[in-house]
Amino acid sequence: MIDLVALITLGERGTLRVRIINRSHSRWTVNSRLAVTAPGLGGDLQLSVVRIAEEGIPAPCLAFPRIGPLSASDFHVLEPGGLFQVERDLTRHFSLRHDALYLLSARIVTESIPPGVPGDAQLCKSDLLSNELVLRGDMTLPRPEEIAHLVKALRDRSALALDDLLKGMLASCTLDTIHADLVYRTFFTRRSALPGYDPGDWRAGRDPFSLRVEQSLKNYSSFKTMIYHNPEHREMELSLDQRVRHSNLLNTSARNSIQHRGVYAYLGSTLSAFAFERMRSSGREREE
Amino acid sequence: MTLEASNAGEVRWGCPELSRASNFARAMAEAGPARNLEPAKASALAAQAIGVYGLHPGIPSDRYTVEFDPLMLDVYGETASNGDCPRVRLGPRAFASASTLVATLLHEFVHVRQIVAYALGKQGVGDTEMAELECEAYYTEMRAGKDLQLESNEAEYASRRFHDLLTRLPEDRRRLAEHGEFRLRPAIQNLPEENRV
Question: What span, in angstroms and rounded, lies between the C-alpha atoms of A57 and A95?
């Protein structure tokens, strides 16, 4: 069971909003600094931003922070079920072209004090999140036509590039449900264009592309769980579920295939199946 | 290579006279808690630290700025390329003590020089180069900290960060960096053309 989970979304006024939620029944003490650095520099919030659709040009990381030593006042007590939220200005760190699309990769590696362990001698490093987000250079979400264009541009690229894009779009779904349709549409229309694609493989459960997408989706387990735990998001996602269920995009047999193969979240009615499963397992844990 | 790049010198510092160092330490103590600093007072203290300890990034003073940002609470200091004119911002944490302020300024001045010398304002650099740029800043902090007899906690922090970043460098560059040799200019100049914006 994951005790702390984090979620990164776009905030207001061109910021990144980082939320850390304590899902355990114990009190955690978390480092609230969440200093932004380039990946590999050991900051709490490690960001890399790559311009997509143009062979992945890295956006210049232009800020060199001196994080400085931690002090006792940097730690924030997070009660069970508690939420800690900060916003960080991305434009402080990266130079983004307003007319471009970017894939932002984020990783939160922060220090926290586990429950029942007093003092900072027992600080543990927590890898709270590894996530991607597609965003425009003006710090807004991509428009549907931009994503559609991107998908088209990626037709001849590798499945891996598409996989990255899908992950980015999945993360974007938290703010704009239209992207869920696009993810779904991409998932089903792009498979057949992949080299070596064989419909027989898909039917027999051996489709390598869908397996990769499935793996990507599984990597989002903590992210999805957070959505389930946040009533505000859950309501939004359930309305998305209904919307997709009634849309022409989803044909019943395809949906059943997905459910059968255990691909969760954002793909039609599987979200509620996932939520139900979480509910059941939470109930079991409580009983135990 | 730009004109500025060819003219960028080394970051400099100097041991202060005892009376000037004491006056500065007293001014820091009298300024009160760092989180309540007035911007004007913070700017004056930073200017005093630069003067007393002879801190210089090795480029003309009209080519960079040093500012106080009372809202920058996540880090001690930060240098942004800001086009061709690097901008150093100091957060309230940098004013915790005289040693902290001097160490932070020294660290950021290394980045000021790097931004100008390697023309970083117009390109993205890879993770390894970023790690080496930071390594150089902490190495300078360590060296200067010893010369200037800064408080031990600052030296310990710089040393810890330096050694942590060293592990992220390739073997050949790590061996050089351990001895304070940073051959970054060729590495950065050889970055792929698409790193340019």
Answer: 12
Parts of chain B with a pLDDT under 70: 1-8, 192-197
Distance CA A203, CA B90 (A): 60
Residue B66, pLDDT score: 96
Contact A40 B131 (CB under 8 A): yes
Residue B81 inside a domain? The answer is: yes
Helix, strand, or coil here: A103?
strand
CA distance B52 to chain A (A): 22
B27 falls within a domain = yes
Residue B131 touches chain A, beta carbons under 8 Å: yes
**Among A142, A110, A105, residue whose Cα is nearest residue A124:** A110
Say yes or no to pLDDT of A62 above 80.
no
Q: Looking at residue A153, what is its pLDDT?
A: 53
Set of chain B residues whose Cβ sits within 8 Å of the Cβ of A65: 74-78
- Coil/strand/helix, residue B164: helix
Number of domains in chain B: 1
The β-bridge partners of A134 are A103
Q: Name chain A contacts of B77, Cβ cutoff 8 Å.
A: 65-66, 68
How far is the alpha carbon of A64 from chain B, nearest alpha carbon, in Å? 5
pTM higher than 0.95: no
